Prior knowledge:
With 87 residues, the protein is an all-alpha fold. The chain has helices at residues 5-48, 55-85. Helix 1 runs antiparallel to helix 2 (55-85). The longest helix is centred in the first third of the chain and has 44 residues, at 5-48.
Amino acid sequence: MADFSKLDASTAGLVQDVTSAVGTMNSAVEFINGLAARITAAVTVALEADNAADQTSINAAVAAIEAERAKAVAAASQLAAAITANP
């Protein structure tokens, strides 16, 4: 009779790898979508503060975007560390 134990172990490992990868991808998608929503909200708030979009509101929009970008860089670093820690 054939020994399926190695096949079973390999299949179980594959299932764990795929499950981990899907979880990581779902987290990344959630992160990206959340970042886009925060940037859009930040820009909208800044531009609504001054409907004419003069230099003051442009500067505010840039500052809001840059703040979100800084958060994104920090979050991306955390995500990369988590991915590395959970291969």
